[in-house]
Amino acid sequence: MADKPKRPLSAYMLWLNSTRESIKRENPGIKVTEVAKRGGELWRAMKGKSEWEAKAAKAKNDYDRAVKEFEANGGGGGAANGGANKRAKPAKKPSKKSKKDESDEDDDDESE
């Protein structure tokens, strides 16, 4: 069975992927984390984002279409299909009572 389509990149990520090399050229020896930080600063200061937002919107539409096609072909793996959700939260363990909780319960006993 084919894998589920990957989520589309945001306008910022599309822009950063195209700009990353120029940021590295302008700042030789820059760390990966610093590239992302500088990219964020440039993106926030940027005025004309509509080109990238349009590309992101197109990518989202393509993704939505691919997901519908994937699910129509028996994909999806949702609970109805018996598949496990890999992002499901693990079962919560019973919490241990803290000393504060125990002292609160003692106070309750005295008032009865």
Automatic annotation (TrEMBL):
<feature type="domain" description="HMG box">
    <location>
        <begin position="5"/>
        <end position="71"/>
    </location>
</feature>
<dbReference type="InterPro" id="IPR050342">
    <property type="entry name" value="HMGB"/>
</dbReference>
<keyword id="KW-0158">Chromosome</keyword>
<dbReference type="GO" id="GO:0006357">
    <property type="term" value="P:regulation of transcription by RNA polymerase II"/>
</dbReference>
<feature type="compositionally biased region" description="Acidic residues">
    <location>
        <begin position="103"/>
        <end position="112"/>
    </location>
</feature>
<dbReference type="GO" id="GO:0005634">
    <property type="term" value="C:nucleus"/>
</dbReference>
<feature type="DNA-binding region" description="HMG box">
    <location>
        <begin position="5"/>
        <end position="71"/>
    </location>
</feature>
<feature type="compositionally biased region" description="Basic residues">
    <location>
        <begin position="86"/>
        <end position="98"/>
    </location>
</feature>
<keyword id="KW-0539">Nucleus</keyword>
<dbReference type="GO" id="GO:0003677">
    <property type="term" value="F:DNA binding"/>
</dbReference>
<dbReference type="InterPro" id="IPR036910">
    <property type="entry name" value="HMG_box_dom_sf"/>
</dbReference>
<dbReference type="InterPro" id="IPR009071">
    <property type="entry name" value="HMG_box_dom"/>
</dbReference>
<protein>
    <submittedName>
        <fullName>High mobility group protein D-like</fullName>
    </submittedName>
</protein>
<keyword id="KW-0238">DNA-binding</keyword>
<feature type="region of interest" description="Disordered">
    <location>
        <begin position="70"/>
        <end position="112"/>
    </location>
</feature>
<dbReference type="Pfam" id="PF00505">
    <property type="entry name" value="HMG_box"/>
</dbReference>
<dbReference type="GO" id="GO:0000785">
    <property type="term" value="C:chromatin"/>
</dbReference>
